[in-house]
Amino acid sequence: MSDARNRRIAEAILPLVGGARNVTSVSHCMTRMRLGLADRSLVRDEQLKALPDVLGVVEDETYQIVLGPGKVARVTPEFEALAGEGRGPDEAPDLSEAEAEGEPGGPGGHPGRTAEELAAEGAAIRAARKEKNATPVKLMLRRVANIFVPLIPALIGCGIVAGINGLLQNLGWAPGLVPALSAVASGFMSLIAVFVGYNTAKEFGGTPVLGGAVAGVIVFPGVADVTAFGQELAPGQGGVLGALLAALLAVRIEKWCRRWVPEAVDVLVTPTLTVLVAGLVTLYGLMFVCGEISTGIGHLANWLLQHGGTAAGFILGGLFLPLVMLGLHQALIPIHTTLIEQDGFTVLLPVLAMAGAGQVGAAVAVYYRLRRNASIRKTIKSALPAGLLGVGEPLIYGVSLPLGRPFVTACVGGAVGGGVVGFFHQLGTSVGSTAIGPSGWALFPLLQGSGSLGATVAVYGLGLLAGYAVGFLATYFFGFSKQMLTDLNVDPETAEAEAAPLADPAGALAGTGSGSGSGSGSGDGSGEDRAPSRV
């Protein structure tokens, strides 16, 4: 995508989030541009969602605009530059008068159950979930996620290089290149503790480089000469969990020093005490304890799939979407990273990725069941490619979750897909991912397992197909009640024509609409009198 195209996307988004002065922070993850906003009420949600390049929005601690992998990394710098310059376009993208007023064809929607109304319900669900999930534990999990999310691009890049290197090694090709690729793939992982320590200190209000310095103790080769708990330490022992706790300790010590150390000697005393005390505690406590915990996590994950097999995969694949809803999925990020650090891949991610397959299958079933609802079908058509690549938010929040039953049947599809992957793991063919972040088809280049690459790819592909098929069938046959089909399977334009009231020459209402006569508004939130809708 050209720079000009990326800038046009940024220019279209900026006025719809309240302009440059309303943007207080800009960052991005794998798929979303995350904005801090001074005044949330200035955001024009419906017009923002109507932009062709916007796949959806998610409200959490920040306002998150889903742009998709690749695109978000290119649009965000352009948006940040525009916001910094403070000279973004003052007007929203050109909309017809009908679109601005919420008439047919515009974001305001039609009488009947439209995609816009479903999106509004999804937004309401997200808002309610956000309020309910604002507990200390879940807020802490979000902060932990903020530590690891910036590392995902490096994990993906190094993971793909490791996969290419493994393929060359297995085929016996380019033997002189294999050591070089191994160094490129392993360099980041050998120092990941330093990056975790840096990000941890930054997230919790300490000096980032001090967090990185303390965490660097863990990967220093010289720790092999240190004995703790009667055992010699090993470089890397404790891994990312040890690095996280070491940096947290460093932040606490640094903040204590800032309060009590005189300003005249602060620049000398505070960094020294922070590194010294946190470093010694890391060597003589955290490395051993966190090393035992990390080893236990690895053994537990493998034991679960080796002995639980189909049942374990079924439960993990079926519960992942609800975990996302509750915000608890963020607790899995350090676990994935620990498994990658220990084994070279995480066996949990391919199982959990089956939830996305169930979601795709459910969305396709909704598409075929609601043949007359052009609005919902259009949303599904635009969001489905992203869903196949593992970006599920547009389908979840724009389709299945507001509808209710399709969200449940999507979970059923994910459970069956997870069960398939778990079944083969129990038979001896484990499927893992060398990085976190991607799922769906985007996970294929990152696959690695206990068997051959062909067997690993085949098992993962079979799990996806099972998730697609069961998600589709469960939704097609059980995703709608008769009343839901009556209410939803309606062409919005036809519904409006049938529901439109007759008008007398003076413009006053002369009769009732030909619809159900429910008297409900069109849902555009304007407070004006509208024709009664069918729902």
Structure keywords:
535 residues, four-stranded antiparallel sheet, two-stranded antiparallel ribbon
Give the helix tally. 21
Any idea what the radius of gyration is? 26 Å
Helix proportion: 55-70%
The coarse silhouette is globular
Strand percentage:
5-15%
How would you spell out the order of helices and strands? Answer: HEEHEEHHHHHHHHEEHHHHHHHHEEHHH
Going by helix content, strand content and strand pairing, the class is mainly alpha
In the predicted model, the low-confidence regions spanning at least 5 consecutive residues are 87-112, 502-535
Strand order of the largest sheet: 1-2-4-3
Give the secondary structure arrangement, pairings included.
Layout: H1 3-13, E1 23-28, E2 32-37, H2 45-49, E3 56-59, E4 63-66, H3 71-85, H4 97-101, H5 115-132, H6 136-148, H7 152-171, H8 178-190, H9 192-203, H10 208-219, E5 227-228, E6 231-232, H11 239-260, H12 263-326, H13 332-343, H14 348-352, H15 354-369, H16 374-388, H17 393-403, H18 405-427, E7 431-433, E8 447-449, H19 453-478, H20 482-488, H21 492-499
Helix pairs in contact: 1-3, 5-17, 6-9, 7-8, 9-10, 9-11, 10-11, 10-12, 11-12, 12-13, 12-18, 15-16, 15-17, 15-18, 15-19, 16-17, 17-18, 18-19
What does this molecule look like?
The chain is mostly helical. It has helices at residues 3-13, 45-49, 71-85, 97-101, 115-132, 136-148, 152-171, 178-190, 192-203, 208-219, 239-260, 263-326, 332-343, 348-352, 354-369, 374-388, 393-403, 405-427, 453-478, 482-488, 492-499; strands spanning 23-28, 32-37, 56-59, 63-66, 227-228, 231-232, 431-433, 447-449. It has a four-stranded antiparallel sheet. Strands 5-6 form a two-stranded antiparallel sheet. A hairpin with a 3-residue loop joins strand 3 (56-59) and strand 4. The relative contact order is 0.10.
